[in-house]
């Protein structure tokens, strides 16, 4: 497999969320990817991670993810992000998130999201 630019790869991945197309996330993920959202149990496997996001996308009227800062060292990418989320009829809530991605063979093998779920919920209710 050709070498990839890990910085651009993760930026493209984050931008893919704005389409609200869960299937479009699949090509970025390793078959055995592990997604761990702070406070929740890890989700293992590409199909399960895509299904999780399909459900998330169905709950929100609008999604606008963006990268604020990003650092890359080899196959590890750390990204400060704003997850803009709007429930039906609600305004876009800027939920701050820190994500750590570990890549293997040009795909995301480990993905950890760190956010404050209580604060995020309060923003969504505003």
Describe the overall structure.
- The chain has a 6-stranded mixed β-sheet with strand order 2-1-6-5-4-3.
- The model has no long low-confidence stretch (mean pLDDT 93).
- It contains 3 helices and 6 strands.
- By secondary structure, it is α+β, with helices and mostly antiparallel strands.
Topology of this structure?
Elements: H1 6-16, E1 29-37, E2 43-44, H2 46-59, E3 62-73, E4 76-86, E5 93-104, E6 107-114, H3 117-125
Parallel strand pairs: 1-6
Antiparallel strand pairs: 1-2, 3-4, 4-5, 5-6
Rg of Cα set: 14 Å
- Record the strand order, biggest sheet: 2-1-6-5-4-3
3D shape: globular
- Percent helix range: 25-40%
Count all strands and give the number.
6
Oligomer: single chain
Approximately how much beta-strand content do the residues carry?
A: 35-45%
- Strand pairing plus helix content: what structural class? alpha+beta
Overall mean pLDDT: 93
| Total count of helical runs of at least 4 residues | 3
> Which regions have little confidence, pLDDT < 50, spanning 5+ residues?
none
Task: For the structure shown, list the relevant keywords.
126 residues; alpha+beta; 43% strand
């Amino acid at each position: 497999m050709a070498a990839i630019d890990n910085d651009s790869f993760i930026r493209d991945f984050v931008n893919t969320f704005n389409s609200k197309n869960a299937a479009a996330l699949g090509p970025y993920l390793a078959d055995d990817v592990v997604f761990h959202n702070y406070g929740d149990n890890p989700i293992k496997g590409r199909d399960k991670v895509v299904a999780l996001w399909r459900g998330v996308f169905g709950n929100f009227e609008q999604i606008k993810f963006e990268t604020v800062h990003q650092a890359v060292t080899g196959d590890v990418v750390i990204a400060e992000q704003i997850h803009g989320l709007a429930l039906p009829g609600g305004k876009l809530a800027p939920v701050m998130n820190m994500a750590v991605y570990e890549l293997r063979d040009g795909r995301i093998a480990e993905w950890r999201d760190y956010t404050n779920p209580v604060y995020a919920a309060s923003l969504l209710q505003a």
